[in-house]
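Cross-check.
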Amino acid sequence: VRQLVRCGALDGIAHGLTRPQILWSYLRRRREGELFAPEAPPRGDYPEQLKLLDELRTLGLMVSRHPVALFRSAAADLADRMGLPAPIPSSRIPGRVGREVTLVGLAAAGKEALTRRPAGSPAEHCETLVFISFEDEYSLFETVLFPPVFRRHRHCIEGGGVMLVCGRVQQEMGAYTVSVRWVGRPGSGRGGTLFA
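Predicted model, tokenized:
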């Protein structure tokens, strides 16, 4: 029961009790055959950060908030410091074809590919480009990092996580892709830690 309470699984059936009140009520009434006591002492709730950490510890993911939501403010600050457009949600990508956008996303999947080599040149002339699928609270969005951008920002994208990406929206055959020119991590500005 403690794990169910800490991860928020009982929030919807606890008649408005806070998580500490649910635990207190359960421990007080568990021998009387009721799951929750009708009254609980006036206690505060856990701080929001602790609730999210409890969800992460018990479930391995956060269910009450998308991880990107935690970085929106830091991402906006970083975009402002770097002189980038203000971050937009991925749901607004279709209306921005041909324009530069800044987005905050959690790396969901990635794939490396080699560029075509000029005819008659050795294989060493191939370079790496990367396709990364990101997600935010609204949807998945696709990005491409061409070789010069990948070389410059490789250190930042290794290991995944939440990133701030800036690039031009392109549309081809009904699919939208952001051709990335800059990548950073909210809270650092240089590709370091995710946390401020």
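The CA atoms of residues 139 and 191 lie 24 Å apart. The longest helix spans residues 48-59. Passed to J.P. for a second look.
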